[in-house]
Write a structure and sequence with these properties.
Layout: H1 3-44, H2 48-57, H3 61-78, H4 84-106, H5 111-126
Length: 131
C-alpha cells in the first residue's frame, strides 16, 4: 500500500465521521427545536397549565412570556447553521434555570430540563467546528 492510498483512506474515514456527526447534530437539533417550539407556544399563548405553573413559581406571568420567547428564539436558532451553537448554549443556560427552579422552588424532579440540557450541550459540542 502506498502512502497516497493510506492518506486517501484516512481522508475518506475522516469525511465519513464528519458526515455522521453532522447528521447526528441535525437530528438532535430538529428534536430540540420541535420541543422548544411547542413549549414556547404554550407559554406565549397562556395555556392554563403553563399559567398555573408560573403562578406557582411566583415570579409573575411576565417570566412565562420571557421564557416562551427565549424558547422560540432558541428553536429558531437551532435551525440556522450559523446560530445553532449559540442557540444551543443559550438553551443550556435556560435549562439550568429550569432545573434549579424545579428543585428549589417547585420541589419537583429536574430530570426533564436536565435531559434537554444534555441534548442542547451535545449540539453545542457537535457544532463547535461549524461556522
Amino acid at each position: 500500500m502506498t502512502s497516497t492510498t493510506t492518506m486517501s483512506t484516512a481522508t475518506t474515514a475522516a469525511s465519513r465521521r464528519s458526515r455522521i456527526r453532522t447528521a447526528l447534530s441535525w437530528v438532535v437539533q430538529l428534536v430540540l427545536a420541535l420541543q422548544f417550539v411547542i413549549g414556547g407556544v404554550l407559554k406565549l399563548f397562556g395555556e392554563a397549565q403553563m399559567t398555573a405553573l408560573f403562578a406557582e413559581i411566583g415570579a409573575g406571568q411576565w417570566l412565562r412570556i420571557v421564557v416562551g420567547a427565549l424558547e422560540l428564539a432558541g428553536a429558531a436558532g437551532l435551525l440556522l447553521p450559523r446560530l445553532a451553537r449559540a442557540a444551543a448554549v443559550g438553551l443550556v443556560a435556560l435549562m439550568i434555570g429550569a432545573a434549579v427552579t424545579n428543585v428549589a422552588v417547585l420541589g419537583t424532579s429536574p430530570a426533564v430540563p436536565l435531559f434537554f440540557l444534555l441534548l442542547a450541550a451535545a449540539v453545542a459540542v457537535l457544532r463547535r467546528d461549524h461556522r
